[in-house]
Amino acid sequence: MAGPRTRGGVDRIEFHVPYELLDTDFDQWPVPRGPAGRHRALGLLHQVVVRCPQERLDTRAEWRTSWRWLCTRGGRHPEAVRVVQEAEVTDALGMELAERPAPACVLAHTTAAPHAGLLEAVLEGGVPVAVWRRGGGAPAPPLLDLLAPAGPDGRPDPGALDVLALPARVREVRRAAAGAAAGAQRAAQQPAGEDQLVLLWDDPDDIPGFRSLA
Questions:
Q1: In sequence order, which ranges of the chain are alpha helices (DSSP H)?
Q2: Measuring CA to CA, which residue among 51, 55, 70, 69 is closest to residue 207?
Q3: Contacts with 110 (C-beta within 8 Å, 6 or more apart), sequence order
Q4: How many beta carbons lie within 10 A of that of residue 68, not counting itself?
Q5: N or C terminus of the chain: which is more exposed, having fewer CB within 10 Å?
Q6: Are 148 and 210 spatial neighbours (Cβ–Cβ below 8 Å)?
Q7: Three-state DSSP class for 140?
Q8: pTM above 0.85, yes or no
Q9: What are the C-alpha distances in Å from 165 to residues 105, 148, 153, 175?
Q10: Is 40 exposed, middle or buried (0-12, 13-18, 19+ CB in 10 A)?
């Protein structure tokens, strides 16, 4: 599904998918670009996000409340972003996330694949935004370091992260990672693989209707 348009065409591509497909590499799909059959990854050209609104039926109230809480604060708040560590991914995490409108965004600093509890908790908790590395694996550097600006102490500040600007910010990270990977290949080094970010972006106020293609 194509999302918001700009003067240059479609800026954001949204994939509404079942829970099982949230970790799919849609952002890596090759797109023809330029002469001589050249291709670029879809996520380098557009803001690519995944969505799973069909799994929100049981927590629709929490989902909408969290999103509106985020929007009324302009995308920034000291409690808007929560970094989830491995030990926090328990069977109770989803209920914990649902208790309050904050956090509205989860950054996964976990090594396990996201389907091993993390995504269930995010969806159960009504959290509209989440970022993780595809397939799991220890974040290096941590997602907070990649996405958040530095605070007064020089360290990444989750309260300064504009959650509403994450689709554009993740595209910036993908482009930077692609450039770094190209340089690593020229130098016969192992690419860092930092372009394997997945952004869950469920805006409850912007869900298109379904229609049959038959």
A1: 42-45, 60-72, 93-97, 118-124, 143-147, 166-186
A2: 51
A3: 84, 85, 86, 89, 118, 132, 136
A4: 15
A5: C
A6: no
A7: coil
A8: yes
A9: 12, 11, 23, 16
A10: middle
